[in-house]
Amino acid sequence: MEQNPLESGACRMLTPSMEDYLETIYELMKEKGYARVSDIATILAVQPSSVTKMIQKLDEKNFVTYEKYRGLVLTPEGEQLGRNMKQRHRMLEDFLRLLGVGESTIRKDVEGIEHHISPSTMRSLQSLVLFFQEYPEYQRAFERFRRLQAGTAEDRSTENLKVMDE
């Protein structure tokens, strides 16, 4: 059985920043067929010189092959890591959507969560997302429960205001 690179020693060698770069390079390669320093810099909102330094580090770790002024290519291991990071990112977005979290909050929260979540927790969250996809009636029941909870909280707030007015 093939080991998940996110659980391998390779992943432990990566910083959150390296993970972001690999995910971005993977996305660009899938979208455009290539990844340029300028594109990576724009997406990650960093200076091109910072991208070049990181690309050199990723090249030293054999996640990319980089030739100055020529471009870069993900190695098989780099591509696998990038793919898994993209899947992890997407799954966390799906999970937060399932909870009813708004899109702008999802973007911020996923960036904060994705580099700090253990593989076992990711597997559990993925199982829950897949469960709700397989059994949408339970997802609808959860959504009804959330609405009731939100209504109950509003009712409690109104009651507290009434008590304070007395």
Automatic annotation (TrEMBL):
<keyword id="KW-0464">Manganese</keyword>
<dbReference type="Pfam" id="PF02742">
    <property type="entry name" value="Fe_dep_repr_C"/>
</dbReference>
<dbReference type="InterPro" id="IPR036421">
    <property type="entry name" value="Fe_dep_repressor_sf"/>
</dbReference>
<dbReference type="InterPro" id="IPR036390">
    <property type="entry name" value="WH_DNA-bd_sf"/>
</dbReference>
<dbReference type="GO" id="GO:0046983">
    <property type="term" value="F:protein dimerization activity"/>
</dbReference>
<comment type="similarity">
    <text>Belongs to the DtxR/MntR family.</text>
</comment>
<dbReference type="InterPro" id="IPR050536">
    <property type="entry name" value="DtxR_MntR_Metal-Reg"/>
</dbReference>
<keyword id="KW-0805">Transcription regulation</keyword>
<keyword id="KW-0963">Cytoplasm</keyword>
<dbReference type="GO" id="GO:0005737">
    <property type="term" value="C:cytoplasm"/>
</dbReference>
<dbReference type="Pfam" id="PF01325">
    <property type="entry name" value="Fe_dep_repress"/>
</dbReference>
<keyword id="KW-0238">DNA-binding</keyword>
<dbReference type="GO" id="GO:0046914">
    <property type="term" value="F:transition metal ion binding"/>
</dbReference>
<keyword id="KW-0804">Transcription</keyword>
<dbReference type="InterPro" id="IPR022689">
    <property type="entry name" value="Iron_dep_repressor"/>
</dbReference>
<dbReference type="InterPro" id="IPR001367">
    <property type="entry name" value="Fe_dep_repressor"/>
</dbReference>
<dbReference type="InterPro" id="IPR036388">
    <property type="entry name" value="WH-like_DNA-bd_sf"/>
</dbReference>
<dbReference type="GO" id="GO:0003677">
    <property type="term" value="F:DNA binding"/>
</dbReference>
<keyword id="KW-0010">Activator</keyword>
<keyword id="KW-0678">Repressor</keyword>
<feature type="domain" description="HTH dtxR-type">
    <location>
        <begin position="14"/>
        <end position="75"/>
    </location>
</feature>
<dbReference type="InterPro" id="IPR022687">
    <property type="entry name" value="HTH_DTXR"/>
</dbReference>
<dbReference type="GO" id="GO:0003700">
    <property type="term" value="F:DNA-binding transcription factor activity"/>
</dbReference>
<protein>
    <recommendedName>
        <fullName>Manganese transport regulator</fullName>
    </recommendedName>
</protein>
<comment type="subunit">
    <text>Homodimer.</text>
</comment>
